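Action item from last week, closing it out:
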Amino acid sequence: MRRRDVLRTGAAAGIAGLAGCVVPGDDDDDAEFTESFEDGLGNWETGAAIGPEVDITEFEWEVGVSDAQAATGDQSLRVWNEGDYDDGVTWAVHPVSVERGRAYEVEVEGQFWSESESFNTIRHAVMRLAPEPPEVEEDFPQPGVNTSEHGVTPYGGLREPLWLADGWHEYEFEWTTPELSTDALYLAVGTAVIWEADATHYVDDLSVSIEPR
C-alpha cells in the first residue's frame, strides 16, 4: 500500500523480478499468467500519475491487497484514489514473461468491483499489456477504446466505465502483438478518476492467455 507516493509523472516504475510468470515454450508454446492475490502483492508494483497542473505528491491514492471483497478466493486488489482534482490514474503492474523475437495473440480478462450501479461515470477501469510499464495516464488507452478490434498495435488494453453493475463485472481485451524485442510484457490494472469523488474499487481473477502467431 502506498499513499502520497513520490513517484512523479514521467518517472519509470520500478519492477521486481519475473518470479511466478510463465515463459512461453511449454504446452505447445501456449502460456498463461493468472492472479487472484491470495498471496498478497508479490511482484506487483504500484504507481500513479496525474496531469501536469497538479504535483503528484498532492494526489492521494492507495493500492494493496484486501479481504473486503473477492471474486475468486478470499482476497483481491484494492484500489482507492481521491477525486478532488477530477483527474489522475492509479495502477498496479506485474511482469509477464515472453520470448524475444516472437509475435503473439493475447487475451486478457479481469474482474472489477463497484459499490453499485450508477448512471454517472465515476471511474474508468484501465487495463494495459505492453513491452514497458506505464508512467503517465496517456500510456493507457483513451476512454472507450478496447484494442480487441484494432489488430496489431504497439500495446493492448482498454479504458471503459466502472459502476456498470452492483458488485463484480468482467472486463477483457485482445491484443495482436508485433514481433517483440523484449523478454517481458507488463500487465497494468487500475482506475482512472472521472468524477470529483473519492472511490474504492477491487480487482480480481486476472488472466493473460498468450499464444504464438
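Closing note: Residues 37 and 159 are 22 Å apart (CA to CA).
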